[in-house]
Amino acid sequence: MKRLALVLVIIGALNWGLIGLLEFDLVASLFGGSNSFLSRTIYALVGIAGIYAITLLFNYKEDRDRI
Questions:
Q1: Number of H helices, E strands in the chain
Q2: pLDDT in tens, 27-59
Q3: Measuring CA to CA, how many Å separate 63 from each of 19, 36, 51?
Q4: Buried b (16+ CB within 10 A) or exposed e, 36-64
Q5: What mean pLDDT, rounded, does the chain reach?
Q6: Does residue 39 contact residue 29 with C-beta atoms inside 8 Å?
């Protein structure tokens, strides 16, 4: 689950980087525009992954203790 969240957060970060630097929305261009169902689903999954990734910040001590 952590890896999936990380992959989705990376996809979101790269997409936002492209939007900020080149005004190009890769997700929208691949999946039929920013208002298409598939694009909105991907945006929602990236958002959920970002929320989940917040919890990873607080699990650092638990991960460190396992080593």
A1: 4, 0
A2: 999 999 999 999 999 999 999 999 999 988 887
A3: 34, 39, 19
A4: eeebeebbeebeebeebeeeeeeeeeeee
A5: 90
A6: no
C-alpha atoms less than 13 angstroms from C-alpha of 42 in its C-beta half-sphere: 21
Q: What is d(CA 17, CA 12) in angstroms, rounded to the nearest whole number?
A: 8
Residue 61, pLDDT > 70, answer: no
HSE, CB side, 13 Å, CA atoms: give it for residue 3. Answer: 0
User: From CA 18, how far away is CA 11, in angstroms rounded?
Assistant: 11
Q: What is the pLDDT of residues 8-24, one digit of tens each?
A: 999 999 999 999 999 99
Tokens of 56: 């990873």
Q: CA angle, corner 46, sides to 44 and 50, nearest 5? A: 115
